[in-house]
Design goal:
Two copies of one chain form a homodimer.
Chain A (H helix, E strand, L loop, with lengths): L3 H8 L3 H9 L6 H13 L6 H8 L4 E6 L5 H16 L3 E6 L4 H13 L4 E4 L6 H5 L5 E4 L9 E4 L1 H14 L4 E6 L10 H13 L2 E6 L7 H12 L8 E4 L2 H13 L9 E3 L5 H5 L7 E3 L2 H18 L8 E3 L2 E3 L5
Parallel strand pairs in A: 1-2, 1-3, 3-4, 4-5, 5-11, 6-7, 6-8, 8-9
Antiparallel strand pairs in A: 10-12
Helix pairs in contact in A: 1-2, 1-3, 5-13, 8-9, 10-11
Chain lengths: 329, 329
């Protein structure tokens, strides 16, 4: 089997230099890099990363746990995480919790067994303790796990404020909010807090209906709206939905029941992921989360912990959000 | 550190039994499984999978290369692959080629270095040789790599036939087809072959315009349609698009230019992924690929090669497709 020494010999450089090229670490001139890469190619050299991981205690693999890989929010986020992890020479093991706590516990155990260097946690299922006990570098998306575990999120409070103020500015008098599941400590719930306080401050009538915990398919949302929201449609003239798929379903539902959007009923969503960007009939009015920057920050925060250790009080990262004016308000 | 022997002792079973529970292999009674799992939990035992991989030469990790994780077709397919791989105790390393050949070559090398047990190849970029030379278990989606590498696909030819016959049955006289990129040997190109032959047999006028190679965003498709398709819109009364995002963009474009769909222009797409299923204004007429069964077959075929070796002539798997009647025809 070809070894790193053979590569160094053919390239006329030291083993350390070959190692630095392979790990993409430290300064290496372009010419040297090319020599090493040519030698690796010529010898068909594939370093055994598993053996290296065992020796170095680093696998350069990040575990990512998401609730649903097929959901446009998470597929887009993973796309960006993969991109930025790749720039730092890390690979992704992806895990789909499907919101099942048992599956998620098994995944954490599996990720530890596979010696991933750290975990990016985008799921909402488990109790916080399960994560606090892992003793691994962790970063979470949109959720506070503990004061020593950094999170990355969009400014959910501001997002709720912007959406609510927009409905009020458009003349809505009675506003309803469809939240996410409120029994889990998600930062996304701050959208609902902001909604409530903004309505109180402005003196408009308001109501919060807790969204269902189901996977967000159109059909699930439709059934939820028919049962929980339909009774309020005659009374309320503005609805702020905590995600775009709910907002779109509501738009279609309202149309089917003869409500004119936006004349009789104004709708604001949240996310602006690939599905929403593609949607033109109607273009949704919504709040944009910067998924590109969130993915980048998740990688940067986790790799910082892996390579330089964590600290007792974590640096959280919060990104501003922006209102996208569409045709539903 | 806790060892497998400690677990066996506490559970009162043999080391072999513990190993079988961990690997989910061979018959294990429910009671025994529970005893072992309880012992593992009590001792907080996490087997070092990396060390085991090095010893056993199996990592239980599958590499998956897709062109774009953010695309609804591939995010849904990965969702299913993850599901079925998990049932067999395999994990996924995902790689996003973004249609760049160099990135894809690096990924294959990286996957070999990490000793993945095999590769599921859903990308379209590389020359076939790069895959034939890997000496690893491989299965491809929608592409013939060689006679010894199995592929899984929907029956693309039949899909093209169904779509074209549907347009003809709806009264179209001049039909245009927007294909995928034709310079890569994709099975998806059989949709275009079927389109052509079906039109010839039926004596209707036809034309094929090769689709752009770009990432399939709405904006890219719009620019493509404006440049390549707009000149034909007055002349043709039916268009078969090789994917749903193109079909949706075309629907919006045609509407903006004053064409009535489906009265003046009928549109059929292909895929029926999560984006299309959610779309209600309009519901697209399209051809459904069974992504659930395709994901299952990709896993089954690859794991069969990993666990029982490949053969000289591969068993390919082709699934039937079905027309979904929407509002665009």
């Amino acid at each position: 089997m070809v070894s790193i020494k053979d590569v160094a010999k053919l390239a006329g450089v030291s083993v350390t230099t070959v190692s630095r090229v392979m790990n993409n670490r430290g300064y290496i001139g372009n010419k040297t890099r090319q020599k090493v890469e040519r030698a690796m190619k010529e010898l068909d050299y594939h370093p055994n990363q598993i053996a290296r991981a065992l020796l170095s205690n680093q696998s350069y693999i990040l575990g990512v746990i998401v609730p649903d890989l097929g959901h446009p929010l998470f597929s887009e986020l993973i796309n960006w995480i993969e991109h930025y992890a790749g720039e730092r020479n890390y690979k992704l093991l992806v895990c789909n919790s499907l919101q099942e706590a048992e599956k998620e516990i098994n995944y954490i155990s599996m990720l530890r067994q596979n010696r991933v260097d750290g975990i990016i946690m985008c799921s909402h299922t488990l109790e916080v303790e399960a994560y606090n006990n892992t003793n691994m570098p962790i970063v979470s998306f949109d959720r506070i796990l503990s004061s020593s575990i950094p999170y990355v999120a969009s400014d959910n409070y501001r997002g709720g404020e912007i959406a609510t103020n927009h409905l009020i500015a458009k003349g809505c008098q009675k506003i309803l909010h469809i939240s996410g599941p409120l029994n889990v400590e998600l930062l996304a719930n701050r959208r609902s807090d902001a909604f409530q306080l903004t309505c109180i401050k402005s003196g408009v009538d308001w109501k919060i209906v807790e969204g269902a915990h189901v996977k967000a398919t159109f059909e699930d949302n439709w059934a939820f709206i028919e049962k929980e929201i339909a009774p309020y449609l005659n009374d309320y003239d503005g609805i702020f939905c905590s995600n775009d798929i709910m907002a779109y379903t509501l738009y279609v539902y309202a149309g089917a029941k003869g409500f004119q959007v936006p004349d009789q009923l104004k709708i604001v969503g949240y996310d602006y992921h690939s599905f929403t960007r593609m949607l033109k009939n109607p273009a949704l009015t919504t709040v944009k989360q910067p998924l590109d920057r969130i993915g980048k920050a998740l990688c940067a925060s986790l790799i910082e912990q892996i390579e330089n250790g964590g600290s007792n009080t974590a640096d959280h990262t919060v990104y501003d959000v922006e209102l996208i004016q569409g045709q539903t308000t």
